[in-house]
Amino acid sequence: MSNLNKTPTANRLHIAIFGKRNMGKSTLINALTNQNIAIVSDFAGTTTDPVSKAMEILPIGPCVIIDTAGIDDVGELGNLRIQKSIDVIKKTDIALLVIDYNGFNNFDYKIMELLKENNTKFIVVVNKTDIQSISNEFKTDLNNYKYIELSAKNKTKINELKELIIKHSPKSFEQPSILGDLISPGDDIILVIPIDTGMPKGRLILPQVQTIRDILDNDGIIHISKERELRWTLENLKKKPKLVITDSQEFAKVSADTPDDILLTSFSILFARYKGDLFELVKGAKVLKNLKPNDKVLIAEACTHHAQPDDIGKVKIPRWIKQNIEPEIEFDFCSGRDYPNNLTNYKLVIHCGGCTLNRKEMLNRIEASTKNGVPIINYGLCIATIHGILDRALKPFEEVYLEWLDSE
């Protein structure tokens, strides 16, 4: 199947498998997927780094299986592997903690504690029942958890484990509709999509594609134009569109060309709600408007694309902030999974739309910021604030808009 036809990884249920070395984690992955995805060996520590595989598992549906290194790995390199395994928790929707008939030890309890701290549901999988049954004493301890006894090697009770995963997976792992609650069947929606150096050749970017699909799912009528053709598009529609959605980089021009009685927002602001917490992200606008000389700002990208000469995160946003808010701002940058654990040195975090992150990881980053007392805002909200059109860009989201007005 072409990658273009697959469910994006960020929209799949993320199932991570944790446990000590040689508990049969890789064997369990192969049993769950009915494929030889992971290397299996009797030698402890075969899996050295987290390995992700996006796939369809019936009857679960689209998911990502993440195999992690043993949480009891040893040595300096082993400690790095353990940390990478722990970092996986940030994006895990549901975890499988694999043990055997010997029961829990301190490593298992540590992982359970971390899973609870991150509000991550987990199932204890007692593996290797083909070798030995668990004792009655251990079974009493297990009754405090959701658990299942099975043999990954013999593929016994694998279907029952799948049923448990479905039953206990968080209902919120799949994001709400991008804009299904904002439109009605038959509404005309205009999408403004500029073609610039940052646009991948021959295709649209993921938020644009997902928004188009969501409009179709909700029986809306789609009109697409570049920013220069927006005014002509509006003049030639037979009825007023319900909503104009623009790339955030063209907010100023699109706002000027769109009549005030037509709702306007951006793909990035839609994704602030779809992937994260729009209420929380809007709070960062106040801090942005009041940045002072020598304040430090972190600009975070979820993906690791090659930066263009006019890159939105590394070039345009810093330039706009210096031109419109405060020239003496210090910027740091991070990308991919390298999101800092300590944010206390920053006055504000400006995050991309997070289209490559699953909802759990984006919410985790928002929570990490708020715990550190550092407001966070995303690109779309940031650009709307800089250009003085945040009020207008929030109007489609009535509850957030009213709360924002009350806070002003």
From TrEMBL:
Residues 281-396 form the Hydrogen maturase F tetramerization domain. Residues 178-276 form the Hydrogen maturase F dimerization domain. GO terms for cellular component: cytoplasm. It comes from the Bacteria. GO terms for molecular function: GTP binding. Residues 14-128 form the G domain. CDD domains: Era_like (cd00880). One of its GO terms (biological process) is tRNA methylation. Transmembrane segments: none annotated. InterPro entries: FeFe-hyd_GTPase_HydF (IPR023873), GTP-bd (IPR006073), HydF_dimer (IPR041606), HydF_tetramer (IPR040644), P-loop_NTPase (IPR027417), Small_GTP-bd (IPR005225). PANTHER family: TRANSLATION INITIATION FACTOR IF-2, TRNA MODIFICATION GTPASE GTPBP3. This is [FeFe] hydrogenase H-cluster maturation GTPase HydF. It comes from Hypnocyclicus thermotrophus.
